[in-house]
Amino acid sequence: MMNKDKQISSVAIKQVSLLAIILILTGLICFNLSLFIPSVLGAITIYVVCRKYNFYLQEEKKWKPWLSSLVLMLASLIILILPVYFIADLLIQKLGNAQAYMEKFNVFLEKIHTYIYSKTDFDILSKENMDKLKSNVGQFSTKAVSGTFNTLTVIMSMYFILYFMLERPRFFERIIASSAPLKRANVALIGEKMRKLIIANAIGIPVVAMGQGLVALVGYFIFGAPSPVLLFALTAAASMIPVVGAAIVYVPICIFMIAEGNTGQGIGLAAYCIVIVGLTDNLLRFTLLKKLEDIHPLNTVFGIIMGMNLFGFMGLIFGPILISLTLLLIQVYRNEFSEESTPDLKLPDSDDETDNKIDIIV
């Protein structure tokens, strides 16, 4: 006869059944609305960045909720979205004419290949490798053009969701906090940590990319690089890629300039990029990003790889956030269910401060 202490209680069975139903329904919703996941993530990101300004306008300045929401949405569009969209649109315009672009790109590759082979006898770009590279670049340019409509759809959906978040922020945050099946201290821990991560990724990464792109643009003009504005956009986008970064753009350009006979300008641009652009990257990363939130480099590397596969270009921001959130939830699980329940992040001491922290959305 089974011991009663070892029998599963009816309450536990009900809990597990209800949890299974919730997970299945959540999975169905996410699967069928996967197109809008980047819109939701983008809306949450902008909400966190604008949160304190929204409360200031609504609660201290007594602005109408709809007016405060529209003003902050317009400000975020001008400051955050348009610079990124400008770079993406510039790339699409330049790469949009696939045939003309591929002709120039083929000449560019042939120049680099011929120069390297003549100097080193090393066939770095064999015919097979060059065909693969040309094919991949052609596919990328086609995807860039076809992705324009999807990007506009994501942005429109994102602002539609964001409006309802900003209009009634206390109500929105109360729903999020009350829905989390966690202790209040752990809700506060997640809220505070995610606020820092989102601001670091939403502000830090684009600022580093734009800063590095602008500094490189000066060098492209000084040393007479071809299509400096296009190279600026490519450098800004490439600076977000882990490990190689902007070097994936300026190294081939320097070799191409030397191969065309502009040896002094090519070497000068290489020195400028290695020293000045590299110094700008390190300076911004070790000051701005560390001040916002000290994110481990491996989080960024794996987050960007995963984010690009899931969300495309927007995954550069959302990927590292999701990796950091996963690690944070592991820490919260330990705090929630183990005897050692002291979070690593310092939490508020008073009840009033804790209530305020719980308002922070994840």
TrEMBL record:
Xref: Pfam families: AI-2E_transport
Domain of life: Bacteria
Membrane recorded as keyword: yes
Bilayer topology annotation: Multi-pass membrane protein
Any single Gene Ontology cellular-component annotation: membrane
Keywords: Membrane, Transmembrane, Transmembrane helix
Subcellular location field: Membrane
Segments passing through the bilayer: 20-49, 70-88, 144-166, 198-223, 229-259, 266-284, 304-330
Matching InterPro entries: AI-2E-like (IPR002549)
Family to which the UniProt record says this protein belongs: Belongs to the autoinducer-2 exporter (AI-2E) (TC 2.A.86) family.
Entry-linked PANTHER family: TRANSMEMBRANE PROTEIN, TRANSMEMBRANE PROTEIN 245
Name of the featured protein: Permease
Organism whose genome encodes this protein: Chryseobacterium taiwanense
